[in-house]
Amino acid sequence: MELDRRTLLCGLGGLAVGGGLFVLSGREGLAAEAAAPGKRFEQVGGDFGWQPKKLDPAECAKVAYEAYWYKGYACGYGVFYGIVGMMGEKFGTPYNQFPFTMFEFLKGGISDWGTICGALGGAAAAFALFYGRKERNTMVSDLFRWYEQTKLPIYNPGDMAQGVKGDIPGNVSGAVLCHISVSKWCYANKVEATSKKRSERCGRLTADVCSKAVEILNAKIDAGKDYKPMFAKQESVKQCGECHQTKGEETNWGKGILNCTPCHDGRQALTDKFKNHPQ
Ligand code: HEC
Ligand code: HEC
Which of 32, 137, 218, 229 is the least buried, fewest Cβ under 10 Å from its Cβ? Predict the structure, then answer.
């Protein structure tokens, strides 16, 4: 940490304000320092300054599932609490100072809009507490690719189930979006999107995403800058990207590296439903 005049003064328990000298106890001096970063954009603790801690994926998954149901705060809150909340439970500050409820906004893919799967949003946010995009993007890609191609949910809370007990069918969503992930599952299993069973599916999926995210975070803590991606570029992204995501190509129009397949392969669900529908 850089020792400037202010930190030095605070460290000594004094804070010079407007020419006068206020003598603060060590604790108050620290609080004054914590509340007042130096310049605009300068952040207390520095950019991405919090240090990540290793956790037990299975233990966190269980807590993420419980957090999902806690006051209905749901998927994003569940995963974020399962990671950063658990660091708080085990290591105290600064982790336990986080206003975790902000992640309720991810419920339903951000305020019920069905955009990004909230569980993934919560995990990416937790990664971003510790790592800037250069290091974080590989971690996010590993989690998102895994999600695209894994049959979920896997987690089964047994008798601790809070929505519906017993087995819940799984599916491969092929997509990271809440809308696609949930709607496909509901259609395949003929379950209402507003049902308890669908909530239970997302609660278990929250546990799965948390577990995988902790696994990735642990691996990153061990490997540091040598962290190697676990998943290669998605096949469709590789193929379509040759023309639509390559610098200099006149068709370089495609933004984002999410799996192109669910939306651009012309399947039944993507035909025009505004005419002669249902038949
Ligand atoms: C060999 C180069 C090439 C590849 C590979 C390629 N495209 Fe294209 N794509 C083009 C060109 C050229 C156009 C513009 C054609 C036009 O003017 O309609 C285009 C147009 C499009 C359009 C807009 C017009 C339309 O037909 O709807 C979409 C969407 C699109 N591509 C998606 C994809 C996806 C998804 C993939 C991967 C499955 C892909 N493309 C692979 C060259 C390519
Ligand atoms: C969640 C669904 C979804 C995914 C996933 C997706 N696209 Fe699209 N894409 C769309 C929609 C919807 C449009 C807008 C189409 C329109 O209204 O013209 C679009 C537009 C495009 C366009 C511009 C052409 C046009 O007609 O507007 C290209 C090129 C394209 N996508 C390529 C890709 C590629 C490459 C990928 C994979 C990296 C991809 N898309 C993934 C849904 C998707």
Answer: 229
Largest CA distance in the chain: 81
Ligand 1 centroid–CA 275 distance in Å is: 25
Q: What is the pLDDT of residues 112-158, one digit of tens each?
A: 999 999 999 999 999 999 999 999 999 999 999 999 999 999 999 99
**Residue 57: its pLDDT value, please?**
98
156/180 same-domain check: yes
Range of the domain at 23: 10-46
- Answer whether 263 contacts ligand 2 (Cβ < 6 A): yes
User: pLDDT by residue (tens digit) across 162-201?
Assistant: 999 999 999 999 999 999 999 999 999 999 999 999 999 9
pTM: 0.90
Q: What backbone phi and psi angles, to 5 degrees, belong to 17?
A: -125, 125
Residue 234 within any structural domain of the chain: no
Cβ of residue 265 lying under 6 Å from some atom of ligand 1: no
- How many distinct structural domains can be found in the chain? 2
Which residue out of 233, 237, 242, 243 has the highest number of ligand 1 atoms within 8 Å of its CB and is therefore the one to mutate?
A: 243
Whether the bond between 57 and the residue before it is cis, its omega within 30 degrees of 0, is: no
Cα–Cα distance between 245 and 250 in angstroms, integer? 10
Partners of 157 in beta bridges:
none
- 222 & 133 share domain: yes
